[in-house]
Automatic annotation (TrEMBL):
The keyword Transcription regulation does not apply. It catalyses: (2S,6S)-2,6-diaminopimelate = meso-2,6-diaminopimelate. One of its GO terms (biological process) is lysine biosynthetic process via diaminopimelate. This is Diaminopimelate epimerase. It holds the Pfam family DAP_epimerase. It comes from Streptomyces cyaneogriseus subsp. noncyanogenus. Homodimer. Its main location: cytoplasm. Keywords: Amino-acid biosynthesis, Cytoplasm, Isomerase, Lysine biosynthesis.
């Protein structure tokens, strides 16, 4: 009988993940295996997988091993690879704390989007240094049915289109990716955020995530929204010299985002481990075969 694979389940503002601790990178996490694990009816269920690997043991992160012991090998629920996951990196850090690999304080985590610094307390919310946003030039349009909106192209390591709308219901059922034009602006696909104002420095959003569909939250998306809102509100910290803070309500909770005058963005929000167990290798083999 093959070895059972450990897993945990966790979430950050209800963006939920199957966590697979695999320090030596020994588990074959094919796209079909990831999709099987994330299946909400036939698998464990999740928006994505947090594969926890020592940087030194992963070909994509070995060059970062001196800076960050651990690599967040993030996968979307459909099995595709993404550069970064803002809610995921908080949950990843919470798992390292839960497993006794780290204690409170600052922790560097390697991601495909670079090394991120996480501040962990004993419990409570987790803060992540998300780096700087890039704002590619050019007009982008997002549409849903007959409606369309101008959108801001924001890259947080991964691509986002942020559209300010009058009513979040106008995003519809979000069962399929909302078209973004021009397609050339997003050669690798895009995460789309729909945003309404709630008050000064306070917005609410829904998101359709590349590779996962509509989720209850997206951390990189909330950062992209805060950056787009600050530019729209004339509160660009690089211009005003003052940090801009936005409270971003998502269907699964609330994130607080601050952009500093040097462009560095910090995100604070919850990170929760809810369960742990073992994956039956025979079930996983069969599920992978069915998907291949
Ligand atoms: N939910 C994540 C983002 C996950 C990756 C995204 N779907 C992509 O493909 O870029 C977050 O919290 O940032």
């Amino acid at each position: 009988m093959s070895t059972r694979i450990a897993f945990l389940k966790g979430h950050g503002t209800e963006n939920d993940f199957v966590i697979v601790p695999d320090p030596e990178n020994a588990v074959d996490l094919s796209p079909a295996a990831v999709a099987a694990l994330c299946d909400r009816r036939a698998g464990i269920g999740g928006d994505g997988v947090l594969h926890v690997v020592r940087s030194a043991a992963h070909p994509e992160a070995a060059h970062l091993a001196a800076e960050a012991e651990w690599f967040m090998d993030y996968r979307n629920g459909d099995g595709s690879v993404a550069e970064m996951c803002g809610n995921g990196v908080r949950v990843f850090a919470r798992y390292l704390q839960h497993a006794g690999h780290v204690t409170e304080g600052e922790l560097a985590v390697a991601t495909r989007g670079g090394v991120k610094t996480v501040r962990l307390a004993k419990d409570g919310d987790v803060t992540v240094g998300m780096g700087r946003a890039a704002l590619p030039e050019g007009d982008v349009t997002v549409s849903v049915g007959e409606r369309s909106w101008p959108a801001r192209n924001v890259n947080m390591g991964n691509p986002h289109a942020v559209a300010f709308v009058d009513d979040l219901a106008h995003a519809g059922d979000l069962l399929s990716p909302p078209p973004c034009e021009p397609a050339a602006a997003y050669p690798d696909g895009v995460n789309v955020e729909f945003v309404v104002d709630r008050g000064p420095g306070h917005v609410a959003m829904r998101v359709h995530e590349r590779g996962s569909g509509e989720t209850r939250s997206c951390g990189t998306g909330a950062c992209a929204v805060a950056v787009a809102a600050a530019r729209r509100d004339g509160a660009d910290p690089a211009v005003t010299g003052t940090p801009a803070t936005y409270t971003v309500d998502v269907p699964g909770g609330t994130l607080v985002i601050t952009e500093r005058p040097d462009g560095e963005i910090e995100m604070t929000g919850p990170a929760v481990i809810v369960a742990e167990g073992e994956i039956d290798p025979e079930w996983l083999d069969a599920a992978v075969r069915r998907r291949s």
